[in-house]
Write a structure and sequence with these properties.
Blueprint lengths: L1 H34 L4 E16 L5 E15 L19 H5 L7 H29 L2 E4 L3 E4 L4 H5 L6 E5 L2 E2 L3 H9 L6 E7 L2 E7 L2 E4 L5 E4 L2 E3 L4 E4 L3 H28 L10 H13 L2 H19 L7 H14 L5 H29 L2 H9 L1
Antiparallel strand pairs: 1-2, 3-12, 4-11, 5-6, 5-7, 7-8, 9-10
Length: about 375
């Protein structure tokens, strides 16, 4: 029964989220390929043996496969290296076959087909954020505390995770932005703070730390982050909501790139990196928090999926785009042998990355300590 509950709580939401995002990604490839005149042979959700499938009028085999961990679109005339328009038996294609072959489309058409997958993920996220802002409202963090930085002004004052700050020096505080405004304008000033902790009001004295900004101005810092479980929603009109969706998606892309840049330069650690186990956990937690939370997480994960696929790693869409960029500069495709080596290297690199994030997941869930305790 515990295994069933675990699967229902975490595995099922994860697979639902993954299936939707893979479908969106592959639908982007499919939609542009069809409009470019490419014959799409297979649209599969999942890998392995087919469980259920059907053929549409265009001759595409749509199917659901046994292993629900991804999916793919197979286009006529496409392989990992997209050779030179010959099939597996190396027989020349007829003129009719060349007309619907991916490999015989123009560089611009092939580029558009490959880029359409990640683009579909970005559009999906922007549409989800737009619809949520327009129908439910824009999420606004309340004045609850999600985490307290070590050795910060908040920790020294006795603030704890889960506390909600309601009053600062007689001024009512409702939103986290209200809290930020007061704290930033009070560097080094002792403030009387009223918090609610487990339905009990507590008074504390807090002195925000003085931080010198790049412009030379000083501002106060408390050292807390908002509580993601304490959220309110503000009504947003249609066009502002539309802009909110685009802005939120672009902001997430910028934030991810900034984080990865800090990781590569050593300014930040890799403790926040997560693999499939962590994603499954978050999916389950979000699902328990309500359908809105799960949808927001799915949109955020869609941005991650689209961006990761644009990384210049062979085997990913970004790797194909790098080869197309080289083809544009050279005026002819990259040598097939070089592409084969590139895709081989890309496969090894992806396996290493997958192994690393899975290792981080196992550390996060303390699996090794659990096994060690079982043995001892």
């Amino acid at each position: 029964m515990e295994i069933f509950n675990f699967a229902w709580t975490y595995i099922v939401p994860f697979l639902i989220v993954l299936t939707i995002l893979v479908y969106v990604h592959e639908l982007g490839h499919y939609w542009v390929a069809i409009r470019a005149g490419v014959r799409v042979e297979t649209f599969s959700i999942g890998f392995g043996p087919e469980i259920y499938g059907w053929n549409n009028k265009a001759g595409t085999r749509w199917k659901i496969s046994a292993i629900p961990m991804g999916g793919y679109v197979k286009m006529f005339g496409q392989s990992d290296t997209e050779p030179d328009g010959k099939d597996e038996e190396q027989e020349p294609l007829s003129d009719e076959e060349k007309a619907v072959s991916f490999a015989h489309k123009t560089l611009g058409q092939r580029t558009a087909i490959v880029f359409a997958g990640p683009l579909a993920n970005f559009i999906f996220a922007a549409v989800v954020f737009f619809l949520l802002a327009w129908t439910v409202g824009s999420p606004v963090p309340l004045s609850g505390i999600g985490s307290v930085m070590p050795d910060s002004a908040a920790e020294q004052a006795g603030l704890q995770q889960g506390d909600q700050i309601v009053v600062i020096d007689g001024q009512e505080i409702r939103l986290f932005s209200d809290l930020q405004k007061v704290i930033r304008s009070s560097p080094g000033v002792e403030l009387k703070v009223v918090i609610v902790r487990e339905n009990t009001e507590i008074s504390l004295n807090v002195t925000p730390r003085t931080i010198s900004g790049a412009s030379g101005d000083n501002y106060g810092q408390l050292g807390v982050t908002p509580d993601p479980e304490q959220i309110d929603y503000e009504n947003v009109d249609f066009f502002p909501a539309l802009w909110f969706g685009v802005e939120r998606t672009a902001g997430m892309v910028s934030g991810i790139l900034s984080y990865l840049g800090d990781v590569f330069t050593g300014d930040r650690g890799t403790e926040d990196l997560g693999g499939p186990l962590r994603i499954a956990q978050i999916s389950g937690d979000m699902a328990q928090g309500g359908i809105i939370n799960l949808i927001i997480f799915m949109a955020a994960l869609s941005v991650n999926l689209g961006l990761i696929n644009l990384f210049p790693i062979p085997m990913l869409d970004g790797g194909h785009l790098v080869f197309y960029a080289a083809e544009f500069v050279r005026g002819k495709p990259v040598n097939e042998r070089i592409q084969e080596y590139g895709f081989g290297f890309g496969m090894i690199l992806l396996i290493m990355i997958f192994g690393f994030v899975t290792w981080k997941d196992l550390q996060h869930f303390q699996i090794f300590e659990y096994i060690k305790n079982l043995i001892s």
